[in-house]
Each structure stands twice: as structure tokens, then as C-alpha cells.
């Protein structure tokens, strides 16, 4: 664990403080930051570690989206999405997406 921070507001200013503290403690670089929609985090990361790729975690997106799917169809839709997201190439993902759209 790198640390534990708490704040009433998790905006860019908060994340900038967290990332700056980590940098001051010896953090040299972050290759990929996978986050779930943290407000202000990408901007703070751009300031502190501009080479970092900030990637949005798809799990919260999928869970949120499944709320709009009929309960009886959720399992099948989730499996279809898993096939799309786990495709090894962009072309394969697009092909799976087209199959999903046709269903």
C-alpha cells in the first residue's frame, strides 16, 4: 500500500496533492493508471506524471449499463460484452460488437 488519503472532495486539487506527495516520496513514473471516473485525476496525473496513460476501468461502466438490461437477459448481455472486451485485436472486437448488435 502506498498510502491512505481522505477528503470531502476528490477533485483535481486533491489528486494533485496525493500524486505530488507520492512523487516527493520517490515515485519516478507510472506506466498506466486504471481509474473508475475519478474527477480531476487525469488532469492531476498530466501535471505530475505526463507520460502516464490514464485508462478508464470498464467494470463500473459495465455494471452501471447492466442496470438498463432486462433481468432475464443480463447474463447473456454480460457474456457478449465480455467477449467484445476480451478480444485480442480491434478487428475482432468490432466483429463481436457487430454480432452483438445483430442479436
The biggest sheet amounts to:
2 strands, parallel
Q: Main sheet: which strands, in order across?
A: 1-2
Tell me, rounded to a whole number, the average pLDDT.
90
Low-confidence regions? none
Rg over CA atoms:
18 Å
Order of helices and strands: HEHEHHH
Strand content: 5-15%
Please tell me what the overall shape is. elongated
- Class based on secondary structure composition and strand pairing: mainly alpha
- Kindly state the number of beta strands: 2
Spatial gap, N to C terminus: 44 Å
Helix content: 40-55%
Total DSSP helices: 5
Overall description:
The protein has 103 residues and is mainly α. 53% of the residues lie in helices and 8% in strands. It has helices at 12-24, 41-48, 58-66, 74-85, 90-102, and strands at residues 32-35, 53-56. Strands 1-2 form a two-stranded parallel sheet. Helix 1 (12-24) runs parallel beside helix 2 and helix 4 packs antiparallel against helix 5.
Give the helix/strand layout:
Layout: H1 12-24, E1 32-35, H2 41-48, E2 53-56, H3 58-66, H4 74-85, H5 90-102
Parallel strand pairs: 1-2
Helix pairs in contact: 1-2, 4-5
Please give a handful of descriptors for the protein shown.
single chain; 103 residues; mainly alpha; 5 helices; elongated
